[in-house]
Design goal:
This protein is α/β, with parallel strands linked by helices. The protein is built from seven helices and five strands, in the order αββαβααββααα. It has a single domain, classed as Ribonuclease H-like superfamily/Ribonuclease H (Nucleotidyltransferase, domain 5, 2-Layer Sandwich), CATH 3.30.420.10. It has a five-stranded mixed beta sheet with strand order 3-2-1-4-5.
Length: 210
């Protein structure tokens, strides 16, 4: 779907009487290291940004350009980070839902309805509905996916300067071959998710984090 089709998807909710619509999505569920970022975005119903789409379908350059335009044209946007320690404590699904909920609850104005990417929703006083593959269907979810992705990627670029051997500037913490080789050679950093490393590091329960 292109940007116009994504916008048309959202317009159906306005036609049903929704006045303030928000979309929320996360980035970073799969990586071995770093936080998960969860964003929420509200647009006025007539705002359109050409090129907005699922962040995974866009180049890094496109995402960076759209990130700035989304921030400038959104009625409101928020992004929340849930760190690796919390991910290990409550699991990545709950961390993702928690991050999305926190971002939504910070929005002003308060939305009438929130479109949540994926099959599950968080529970709050604000009505929310799940949209499977929502980042490829909904304009506001796609915009949230871009905000979340760019935010997280920038964090991983900064962390890559502290731990250059893991090539986070390229893999952003995902389980690429080079990242796994580095993990086995150098061991995990304090930014790695302990609960994600069992199979990679031989099923050990304890790791030496340096």
């Amino acid at each position: 779907m292109n940007s116009l089709e994504l916008k048309s998807f959202d317009k159906k909710f306005f036609l049903d009487g929704v006045k303030i619509l928000a979309g929320t999505d996360e980035a970073g569920r799969g990586p071995l290291a770093g936080p998960v970022a969860a964003a929420a975005v509200i647009f006025s119903k007539d705002v359109f940004i050409n090129g907005v789409n699922d962040s995974k379908k866009l180049s890094e350059r496109n995402r960076e350009e759209l990130y700035e335009e989304i921030k400038s044209k959104a009625l409101c946007w928020k992004c929340t980070l849930i760190g690796h320690e919390k991910i290990d404590e409550i699991n990545i699904l709950q961390a993702s839902l928690s991050g999305m909920k926190k971002s939504v609850l910070k929005l002003n104005p308060v939305p009438d309805l929130v479109l949540v990417d994926g099959p599950k929703i968080f529970y709050s006083r604000i009505k929310a509905i799940p949209i499977i593959e929502g980042d490829a269907k909904s304009f506001c979810i796609a915009a949230a996916s871009i905000i979340a992705k760019v935010t997280r990627d920038r964090i991983m670029l900064n962390l890559a300067e502290k731990h250059p051997e893991y090539l986070w500037e390229k893999n952003k913490g995902y389980a690429t071959k080079e990242h796994i080789v580095a993990l086995k050679k150098y061991g995990p950093t304090p930014f790695h998710r302990k609960t994600f490393l069992g199979k990679i590091l031989g099923g050990q329960n304890e790791f030496e984090f340096k």
